[in-house]
């Protein structure tokens, strides 16, 4: 008896584990949003927009390259006397090709029942056409993805009183990285309502639903109130999800007894569901030599993130940034932290691990070695070639820029062939760094001096490097989000 | 049991691991790297002294001779002489071979053992002699030389035998009177005899003999039968001793030896010392392995000078970083005590000869020391042509040069690949590409590939892919000025520039100051805008609050305000909610200075002005200003606006403004620069120490009838339809002594001359008396049409009777001024056949502006807030504090210049700006006749 229970429990655990292994939080494909407690979605099938609230249950089981997703919706809106239940099972076949992942989704089973004021709309397997596909591109620091789906649902009205055909064209686009994640879904519905019987009713309507899921990591400096405390304050890292639902509709108007009226019912509405922020206090840096420095805030932040060594007493903001230290900083800022070898209790002795020789000049004793290996493996920093990394050499502005652009995977956004970056010392920009510098300038990730020089080959000071990374964080938090959210749903 | 085994095994492993973790007592830099480090050998300087050959400079065999020196295989006859062209002797040949197989020490020991004791101090048999003897013995033991060969060598002709005996006698005669004992004499005789006998070994060795010995030393198998090919290629092969042919063929086969000419092997000719050096050089690694020497090939990547502190001693070290052909890495080190020989460009010296970039062969002895390195001559060849094949997996590369010759190259790991001057990898090379390969002594060091560039594509980007996001600061028909992160940037608007809003086409004048826009460009250099995307009203200012700051949460970016009043239609009304939580991020000001959220929390308890946007259902502060002082309110026109010293005059009061002043126009937060002289504003100011500082300015928007940036403007006429023509309408006087009217600056003015206006099929015609739309075609052609086609009875009668000619109407037209010429096009006509305007004094029409609060489609009414009426006496807008319901039953409505039909009233949006021309119908009710909407 007990054994059985344990088996069941462990099975259950295994199931939940496979669930949590999925990174992107997609609450179904129907343009809904959710937070920790509720799920919301709008339906237009009755001719008026009804916001339904309830729960969604998502289960995913993974088998080699196939994921089966099972969605169970239970939604209601008491004011409109509306209720919806929907169970969907979808097969997701994945093909991984280098840094790209292709997903082709197909419907296994579908059942949906909507009941509004006594009227019942139903769809099942036989009345739905459905297809969806996504593509995902993995870049060193960011994963980008986009997808499309098309569906045609044919609802029956009270079983035999006609039908409602809802044609939906959907697109999804988004990204995922350490500082933020956005997924924007756009659905275009075309609704044809044909009720037959004693009082026939026919109308057509359109609706656009835009659902945005966003997760942003943010940081604030929390100062301590007492003055007699060993540290003045520290950074707090928060992570919060913002989910936005925006919909516009063009539907008919009805009289109280349900017949059509002149003119149309149009409108735009938006609402959001935020999650409670997750808090994490960061280390308190010990540096003594950065107080009052122009980049103090940035340095403190980087030290708190352990991107620069937080425990050393001195930082030396005007000293040059070494390539090795920058590798560490980039890895920490982007959350690309090499996996620590966790001592396992079952094995008292660890087998000897083969030493990775990544660069001629990076010894295994180098404290930055694991970060250098990681940024090298991800293709973020490749070294000047010839098997060297030059960890103890200075980092030029051109190098740092190229690294940041490579992180984002934007190298190919630059113009073709010969062009001018617009800096006065354009001619002095090394050819290999030109496209990165152009892209970074366009995205305001880097700038020139006040008089318009870029100074590509000038070694960066630690303060400058740290500021550049702080800019990168801001870009990853805000600008990228604007491009994927506001730019799509507000324009 | 098994477990136990595992345990012991793992224990051993652990110990091994631990041992590895403890760094060996290191000499030098081992501890700093995970790659092998080879130190130089001790005292190479002294060794070097033995190789100062003065007789080899310019000799073809310099390289092998110095290689022999570096590998200690052949020495000179003296420190300064190698005698390259002297004949090689039997014993020299054997000594070299014995040395090459690593048995020199053995040979020397053997020679030493057999060396007879010297008679007194006479040195008759030298070490050379003894060691030579040992070498011969080792050679015998190793099977290099056969007994038959020895016999052949030491077998003397009778004449030689006689000569030898004569010599012996002559030499012995010198010792006869030296007072040696008989025993001693006998010993001397024995030694002298041995020396003389041994002299046969110092005779020149024939070529065929050397070839055979080398073959045996290398343990080559003889080649027999039809496999013998090379030997037969020589004309003189028949002179070779029969038993030597198979081994000679093997040696020839391995390219260790060649003939003296392509057709002559000269088997019985003498062999020179330099030829021996060359042969040993050709054999290369095969012998080295026997001596435990490893040969490696690599490139000097870096040379560093390191100073090592060791117990008060300073050791200067040079560290050479070597990247090997197989992509592994080593370090070579040298210092004052340890170094290694280097051959470079015909010279032999120490490691200081090495330079960065040198490709070297280098040799490591069994003690893991570097003994010698040879720099591959820095002869650089360049091959230019086209790529045939790129084999990424095997690091191979094939190309055809411009002469049509094919080249197949192995690519060492250190090969640099460039495409158009930018670092690339092997994968980036493509078939047919023009390419230049640079070789250093046959080793490919760099590949430069070129891709043809089309000059027309320099700087090409996909059209529209360059974008810019910013807030509109100023806009005209040709230019837009944006605020992008505090910077002002100007771009050019072309007639081809596309304007969209919510993905729908929009007119340029719909882009308002304060709007956020995304500009896109087709070209990276040009400021010409390809398209302007305008943000919808998601971020528009929905509320202006004045309230007391209660709490700021820095990390949640939130604040709570209480005692709130809200600005609505020029009044501050108490807000129904006691407390409101507002998201707040940036744009917080205190007296003209931007402050942080943290600083704002220090202002708790003070009053704030907050401009709020309601994006995505959340209240967000677009701008916050801390109130400092007592409030004074004005509602009037701006006079005397001076941006230079940030001052303006309102109602004869000087009011200063700053960065923090909240300026709102058209529901958008705008810059103070958008303020214009003579504009009607609502202003809240703080009176602080006698100064008045503007805190909140609402620019009352009445510009719907003004000239617009695209050169158009809307005009409204009130007149009588005198005539209808071919797409034209003639407007004439309203009544006797009353000319027709035109709305100018919100006032009706009389115009005497009749005017012909253009009509189109799109002109909207509405009869507000019977509240029916008149199909434009019928209206225009009312003289020619068959009225029976009109179904509506009332309309039919009216059209039939030319009812509208001579009757009054409101006409709204769009004037376009292009190059000084003005044309007017009628957009809408509101027919009012039974309105009679007898007196020009009594005018019941008046203008009003406001915002739509609500549209009731069923009642055909709209509710207007922020309503202001035009006061014709004072020539200004006067606020109405209440909302007003306006009937749309008689109205012709224009939305963004497009007339909408009776069925399209649902398109009117809340908070849209309206300009209404209405008429008093009764004491309580107004009828709108012309409604201009911007939304």
Automatic annotation (TrEMBL), chain A:
<dbReference type="Pfam" id="PF00395">
    <property type="entry name" value="SLH"/>
</dbReference>
<keyword id="KW-0732">Signal</keyword>
<keyword id="KW-0677">Repeat</keyword>
<protein>
    <recommendedName>
        <fullName>SLH domain-containing protein</fullName>
    </recommendedName>
</protein>
<feature type="domain" description="SLH">
    <location>
        <begin position="355"/>
        <end position="418"/>
    </location>
</feature>
<feature type="domain" description="SLH">
    <location>
        <begin position="282"/>
        <end position="344"/>
    </location>
</feature>
<feature type="signal peptide">
    <location>
        <begin position="1"/>
        <end position="23"/>
    </location>
</feature>
<feature type="domain" description="SLH">
    <location>
        <begin position="420"/>
        <end position="483"/>
    </location>
</feature>
<dbReference type="InterPro" id="IPR001119">
    <property type="entry name" value="SLH_dom"/>
</dbReference>
UniProtKB/TrEMBL annotation, chain B:
<dbReference type="Pfam" id="PF00395">
    <property type="entry name" value="SLH"/>
</dbReference>
<dbReference type="InterPro" id="IPR001119">
    <property type="entry name" value="SLH_dom"/>
</dbReference>
<feature type="domain" description="SLH">
    <location>
        <begin position="48"/>
        <end position="111"/>
    </location>
</feature>
<keyword id="KW-0677">Repeat</keyword>
<protein>
    <recommendedName>
        <fullName>SLH domain-containing protein</fullName>
    </recommendedName>
</protein>
